[in-house]
Fold this protein.
Amino acid sequence: MAIPKQVKCPACKKVGDWFATKYGPFCSHRCTLIDLGKWFNGENSISEPLRPEHFAEYENLVENEKLDRPENS
Ligand SMILES: [Zn+2]
């Protein structure tokens, strides 16, 4: 007999054998919708939070581009 795999619902963190349901790994249809809502809100679209250094890096790239293309051409 297969041992039920206990998983944590990604939406509500409730633990149970959610893969046994058609909504796995979510515990309920409601939780699949909650997670879908997160995607639409862009919460999961960025792999890491934006930090000031990301913008600093971008500024450096722009700076290099300016050096490669002098305005007095
Ligand atoms: Zn849930």
